[in-house]
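Practice problem 4.
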């Protein structure tokens, strides 16, 4: 087979062009500073007995997530968790059924494994819930994996446990696993149900502390899988990560010991920003949207359809970024993130309004 060129245009954009004084492009929270945590130098060490996870972190995470420890596989963020899950479950030529619109990396990563990527729809007209007909129609006898996000990126739509069970049951009909990326799940806050892991035997969950808590730098991620698969994932990780970065594991334990601090900080940012966003959306007749009830992002349609021009003016004239919808396969939409501090977010929304006025 010829070597394939694999790359993510979205990730490249996010790393090189998203940054701006008023950044509404990021889906995560602004970085949580070290000063937010009572870290002592003696809490840290450079290396330690961390082979298949550092036992103190394994047990702290299992307790935090309320899952059995033998179902928990640590990973370097949700990104590697998704990669590992696909590496463990897919072979070239298999079919994978992925939601649309989707976080581009899920599709690109599946493509990297030379599988046939099929899609099922989560239409704006259904508030980005699952179009069940399209999910059923997308399944084939070769489908090994069905992939969705909960909360949904880019819309933040929350799927109910009933919807998750139904998706898992449909996947099970063809012997497929349901991969649920829960990286934004905790941003549902008060209505956050327990992780979907365990709702059915063929569910595998990936997640991390990176996005919702502004803790991207410590890469504390995980996979939840049935024990036999979890064991396979650990062994497969010997080929990828070998061992975790131990200092980051130690910092992750400190975070879990003082979790209330990072959770309160996240709420303190997202709650006022969600109010500001909903007031902004209600004031705009040029955006098709519903109020945001959970999550860090929303995905309105721009009625004029002039998204490229809008994003260009927004960046050049108003120092503000949003994600152009084409990165999520919906070129007439934009994704607006509300994870930066409330002053920056409110001002970014005001500037977005000015740019929208210009392209109307
Ligand atoms: C759906 C989804 N999964 C995974 C990731 C990456 O998460 P992490 O930073 O934990 O690797 C992102 C980042 O934007 C995402 O949107």
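Answer key:
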């Amino acid at each position: 087979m010829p070597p394939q060129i694999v790359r993510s245009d979205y990730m490249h954009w996010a790393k090189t062009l998203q940054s701006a004084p008023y950044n509404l492009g990021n889906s995560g929270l602004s970085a949580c500073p070290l000063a937010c945590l009572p870290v002592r130098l003696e809490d840290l060490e450079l290396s330690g007995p961390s082979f298949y996870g550092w036992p103190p972190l394994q047990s702290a995470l299992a307790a935090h997530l309320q899952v059995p420890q033998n179902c928990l596989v640590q990973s370097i963020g949700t990104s590697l968790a998704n990669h590992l899950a696909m590496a463990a479950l897919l072979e070239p030529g298999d079919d994978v059924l992925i939601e649309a619109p989707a976080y581009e990396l899920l599709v690109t990563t599946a493509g990297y494994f030379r599988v046939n990527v099929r899609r099922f729809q989560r239409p704006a007209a259904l508030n980005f819930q699952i179009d069940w007909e399209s999910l059923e129609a997308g399944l084939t006898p070769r489908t090994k994996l069905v992939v969705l996000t909960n909360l949904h990126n880019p819309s933040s739509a929350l799927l109910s446990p009933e919807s998750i069970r139904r998706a898992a049951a449909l996947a099970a009909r063809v012997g497929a696993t349901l991969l649920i990326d829960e990286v934004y799940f905790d941003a549902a806050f008060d209505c956050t149900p327990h992780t979907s892991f365990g709702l059915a035997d063929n569910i595998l969950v990936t997640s991390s502390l990176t996005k919702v808590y502004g803790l991207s730098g410590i890469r504390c991620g995980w996979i939840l899988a049935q024990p036999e698969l979890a064991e396979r994932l650990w062994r497969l990780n010997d080929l990828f990560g070998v061992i975790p970065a131990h200092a980051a594991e130690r910092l992750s334990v400190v975070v879990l010991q003082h979790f209330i601090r990072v959770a309160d900080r996240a709420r303190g940012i997202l709650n006022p920003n969600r109010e500001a966003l909903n007031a902004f959306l209600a004031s705009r007749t040029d955006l098709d949207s519903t109020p945001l009830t959970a999550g860090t992002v929303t995905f309105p349609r721009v009625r004029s359809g002039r998204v490229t021009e809008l994003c260009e003016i927004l960046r050049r004239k108003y120092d503000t970024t949003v994600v152009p919808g084409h990165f999520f396969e919906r070129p007439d939409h934009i994704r607006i993130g509300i994870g930066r501090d409330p002053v920056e977010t409110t001002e970014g929304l005001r500037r977005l309004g000015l740019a929208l006025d210009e392209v109307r």
